[in-house]
Amino acid sequence: MRRKNPFIYYGGKALAFVISVFLLSAAAFYVSRLAPGDPLVSYYGERAEKMTAAERAQAEARLGLDQPTGVQYIRWLENALRGDFGISYKYKTDVVKVISARLPNTLLLGGIGFVLIFTGALALGALCAWCEGRLADRLICRVGTVISCIPEFWLSLVLILVFAVQLRWLPSSGAYTTGGGGFGDRAVHLILPLAVTAAGHLWYYAYMIRNKLLEEVRSDYVLLAKAKGLKRRTVLFRHCLRNVMPSYLSLMAVSVPHVLGGTYIVETVFSYPGIGTLSFESARYQDYNLLMVLCILSGAVVILCNILAQVISERIDPRAGEGEVPEHG
Amino acid sequence: MDKRFIQVGARSPLPDPAKKPRRSVGKPAAALAVLAVIAAGCLFCEAFIPKDPAYMDLYHASQPPSRAFWFGTDTMGRDIFSMIWHGGRVSLAIGLLSTAVSTGIAVLSGAASGLAPKWLDGLFMRAVEIFLSIPSLLLVVFLQAMLGKAGVLSLSLVIGATSWTSMSKVVRAEVRRLRGSEYVLASRCMGGGFFHILRRHLAPNFFPSIMFMVVMNVRSAIAAESTLSFMGIGLPLETISWGSMLALSEKALLSGAWWIILIPGAFLAVSLLCMTSAGNWLREGGRQDSSHL
């Protein structure tokens, strides 16, 4: 077998990453400029509509919006490479500051949600494979199909209706009560968004684990292990699960954007102050600088995860030489 | 499995797993029936809906379900029972239209990429990856802004244009598998063009494997429409659909008007569930061989 030079290997991956992010930034820049709407409104508010033509031109020149798009992009790129991403039109402060104020909230929600999905799917999938075709398996599969059909936003609404409006057990929106912000307060605010995030994604991955395990259970080495006198538990968890793990790990890496996209919707419904609500706002109000950084940030995470998935599947299972990332449908 | 046992001289295990009646994925009759009822109700809704769905009866806003208003009225005083059937038309139409768009893009791009030389194919796959890396929600917001005010047609176009990638990957894989076969080669030798080969030789072969994805695409397009309309970037409130009916739910939450949220959502969820059952049925049925565990 041919061993690759690690420098060339990881260098190539890094190069691919940089080129992809560069292309992404160019595409996002041009597309955001194509959108109709007035960025001045988000900077000056209502006042922008009453401006005279001269005032307008001056304001545009101040924000650098009077140049052709290509020139604007090169200027933006120059500044960005120096670490200056410009100011947000709406919040009038440095873009990085605006984002870093919101980022921890999203990381908290997405991170805990991701861990929940990852472990929950593994447990449920293994349980289903353990009692294949029996009541528990059929029940879990049925419940999973039903819940994964329900759109996330409606599930959130129903949960808010039940737990916040009717029972008044949990808060309906936000990340903490104003003035508060202790650990307990934050945890209480996280319960519903987390429940929706996990419930929306868990089943797909659990089902995938189950099917992979069922395929594995039908292979010849399981027959041998059984003939050797190994326990059912040992065979399933020591041998089969271990064989399933590589593809599960790379699938989880690919799934990051889906979980991310899910938290965007959940954040909007619960008015949770995170990256999702921020990007939604910035796209609606033509807050170009903010939008660019958010786009690149989430795009970079996605590209990084795709590369990670490739590396995982190539490292753990050398047969996957071509590096086909598993299908996510 | 039997053969292996016979080869080593052991008796074949009992009962014979091949003959054991397995619980197969049967035709989901209930799901298809419910789907048919909903679709028919939406198509012929003029025949039985009691009120004009767009009429705002401000004296009777936010009424709970009663004999006059079977499913209650929304915060703008419109009759929810009439709106459900009328809005279902729009939702289903968007599902079908955007699936047509995405299937078209997927088949063309997948086949082109599958038949292309290796470097072009690799380039194309990179491009798809970058396309995938923009969160689809943002992409939809952009496209929506570019196309101007949202209508049924523009929204289906947008949803279709953002949901073709996974299907395109499957088509590409299938085409790569098929392109070496003799009949494709023969057709090429006789001067068959791209579209001829695609229509006569490739499509009939890969269509069964994307059939399941097509049905699932209808489902996710309807879900996407409702999500977008709910968030206020899809259809406006005047264009009644299941999603735009739910856009009023934030106001409804404050007043505890559960029927505004639960009833349209239940219709939405039930149709999505029926479509999923139908899709799962199209995918190959259960497995034949038994577990070794």
- Compute the number of strand runs of chain A: 0
Mean pLDDT of chain A: 79
Q: Total number of helical segments of chain A?
A: 12
How is the biggest beta sheet of chain A arranged? none
Look at the structure and give the mean pLDDT of chain B.
79
N-to-C series of helices and strands of chain A: HHHHHHHHHHHH
Q: What general form of chain A does the structure show?
A: flat
In helices, the fraction of residues of chain B equals 55-70%
Number of contiguous helices of chain B = 12
Structural class of chain A: mainly alpha
In total, how many domains does the architecture of chain A comprise?
2
Radius of gyration of chain A: 24 Å
CATH architecture of the largest domain in chain A: Orthogonal Bundle
Count of distinct strands of chain B: 0
Task: State the name of the first-level CATH class of chain B.
Answer: Mainly Alpha
Q: Would you state the CATH class of the largest domain in chain A?
A: Mainly Alpha
Task: Show unreliable segments of chain B.
Answer: 19-23
Question: How would you characterize the overall build of this protein?
Answer:
The complex is a heterodimer of chains A (329) and B (293). Chain A is mainly alpha-helical and 329 residues long. Chain A contains twelve helices and no strands. In chain A, α1 (6-34) runs antiparallel to α12 and α11 crosses α12. Helix content of chain B is 66%, strand content 0%. Chain B has helices at residues 2-7, 29-43, 80-115, 118-133, 136-147, 152-161, 165-178, 182-189, 194-231, 242-246, 249-255, 258-282. In chain B, α3 (80-115) packs parallel to α7 (165-178). At the A-B interface, α1, α6, α7, α9 and α10 of A face α4, α5, α7, α9 and α12 of B.
